[in-house]
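Session log. Operator J.P. requested a structure for one protein chain; no other inputs attached. Running the standard single-chain path with token output.
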Amino acid sequence: MTKAGFHQYPPMDQVIFGKPAGQALREEAEKRGAKRVFLIVSKTLNTQTDEIEKIRNALGDRYAGTFDGVPQHTTRASAVTATAAAAAAKADLIVAVGGGSVVDAAKIVLMCLEHNITEESGLDGFELVSTPEGPRPGPFRAPKVRMIAIPSTLSGGEYNSGTLVTDSRRKLKQIFSHPMMMPLSIILDPEITRHTPQTLWLGSGTRAMDHGIEAVCSPRGNPLVESVCLRGLRYLYDGLLATKENPDDLEARQFCQLGSWMSAFGLQCRVPMGASHAIGHVLGGTCDVPHYLCTAVMMPSVLKYNQPVTDEAQKRIAEAWRAPDARASDTFAQFIGRLELPGHLSEVGVTQDKFELIGRNAMLSVFTRANPRTIEGPEDIVDILRLAA
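Structure written below.
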């Protein structure tokens, strides 16, 4: 029996690797005619290393300013503050240099600049909403100012057009998305990642694996996405173990970056993610769990929950991890142990008294409806959480 489906290519121009970040960015700015390049960067990279200064020097008179006040989980308050700084600098190109929160901040700044949003409440109504008919995007215009991403971690959020922003009033992460919020270019420079703390590096790598796993298991994937994601999952499996053994191995770091790129191919092409993403976003926004630890504690349980309807996909995933005769859930749990990351919710401070709230909030996510095994209500989310307790 033949299968029906489609593949959607994202509105991104290129991924650049093998060049120093400053050189690659200068060439990009020149090519695009950008004269006011505004940097949104990791505070650690800006204040404790010379990496951002190298980039500023490479830009020369095209450099317009720097903002380094993005907190974990990218709050609305930081978004409007960064927007004000970018507007004052008359930015014509935004560049994110840092981890997932910095990349998310740059994306939402594009939207805020387009709509002159200067207050947190100005974001109300623009978020992606889950409906029985599918996700409903906010009604906003395509941003005229675009962005480039230079990631220092592996989480892979730069490979899609959506951004996660926390509404601190409700302690709830929300998704904002527009195709033109996709970075024009992504620059991969393993040198910058040498400054990333080891636990963050390894944890964000497992977050990148989340993209590949959920894309391969999605009923809305396709052969191209599956092939690329499976190769990315192997790259990350091998590369993360290698950098755990030797953090100074730049070849292994680049291997991880390439794995993150490939594992995000489904996300990049709008194959919907599932329960691990939905729950992970709530763990971060509602329970303050670092984003880079969410996959480590949740994915084995999500794989177990989805096993009845994704058995063949999970066999292919286990094979990519060099364990063709094992269950993917068991192999991933063992992998987390080898990386010395937390493997249970109790290890990241999430107790069972919070499960019902997490379940209710997770039902608001567009990814919950896209999970390969149907999730009927909060009680199903709680069942998954109990497996991870």
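Operator note: The beta strands are 14-17, 37-41, 63-67, 93-98, 129-131, 134-136, 146-151, 162-167, 172-177, 185-188.
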